[in-house]
What we know:
By secondary structure, this protein is α/β, with parallel strands linked by helices. The chain has one domain: Divalent-metal-dependent TIM barrel enzymes (TIM Barrel, Alpha-Beta Barrel). 37% of the residues lie in helices and 13% in strands. It contains 11 helices and 10 strands. The protein has helices at 11-15, 45-54, 77-90, 110-129, 147-161, 167-170, 190-200, 212-217, 225-238, 274-281, 301-312, and strands spanning 34-38, 59-62, 95-98, 134-137, 173-177, 206-211, 244-249, 251-252, 263-264, 289-292. The strands form 2 sheets. It has an 8-stranded parallel beta barrel with strand order 1-2-3-4-5-6-7-10, surrounded by 4 helices. A two-stranded antiparallel sheet has the order 8-9. β3, α4 (110-129) and β4 (134-137) form a beta-alpha-beta unit. The protein is globular. The chain starts with 10 loop residues before the first helix and ends in a 10-residue tail after the last helix. The protein binds zinc ion (ZN) (2 copies).
Amino acid sequence: MPRKFFSKKRSIAQEQDILSLPAPTEPPKLTSRRIGIHTSSSGGAQNAAERAYRLGCNTLQIFSSSPRQWAPYELKKSHCDEMLLLRKKYDLNPLVIHTNYLVNLAGTTESFLKKSIEAFRGEVERALALCAAYLVLHPGSFRGADREQGLLRTAAAIRAATQALDLEKGGLTILIENTAGAEYSLGGTFEQVAEVLEHLRGLVPIGSCIDTCHTHVAGYDIVSEAGMKETLAQLDATIGLKEVRVWHCNDAKAARGSRLDRHQQIGKGTIGLEPFRWLLNDPRLAHAAFIAETPIDQPGDDRRNVETLKSLVEPSGNGRPA
Ligand SMILES: [Zn+2]
Ligand SMILES: [Zn+2]
């Protein structure tokens, strides 16, 4: 997700909060895939579950605290309980949490790294309290060191931050997200993400989240059919398709290879509609959740993007995720 994601554009969502509209009279039509969108937790995490349901989702992603503040954040037990109840009632799975943007686990300044590790530990604790399945993390920025050291630092920091927390028991897996690869940011190639996973395998439950916009602007071809085939083959050979538990489904405003991370509505950018159809219908990816992080330019864009993704899933007959 780009840093700009939660800025101005997102505020339209507040004005047109789906919770202020009449509740739907019947449950949304679902597909054989898990499809959702990054959803506002305004008013408490439990509100995100109600919003996601009303947006037509059967999975969701949230921030568990303010995405741009260091202040420690305590979740209310009652909010966590209600979140779990609503998720059961609406069958909203998996719950994905996206880490705060300030966290940089590859940081080279001692004090900043310490702050990041503490903040990330808070993320893990809140993810456990919310019974989330996944916590998505960008591998960080290696400014001040070299890339190889950066990847090692990130892996070491994840270990340090999760010390004495039982992720396995909590059913929580940390997902390393690939990035647009701008400047010093780690994770611009599948190999770099795979390397972080390699350092942590057997130590912390770990997997990956692949963002279509990041993949495209980092230079991979997912637009031509042959290109998508080749890109998925590379992904399988490095990270492994099974390890990709979440696909961030975002179209891109910028050109392939530009390293500019600007998300666009599904089908309206430089990626276009077809690549999303291929991903959603690939049986090798059926285990994953598909979650949009698209901008809200017009009220209702969130609902429409979920609708668009769902419309691309070919009927499989059983109507339930594999
Ligand atoms: Zn992200
Ligand atoms: Zn993303």
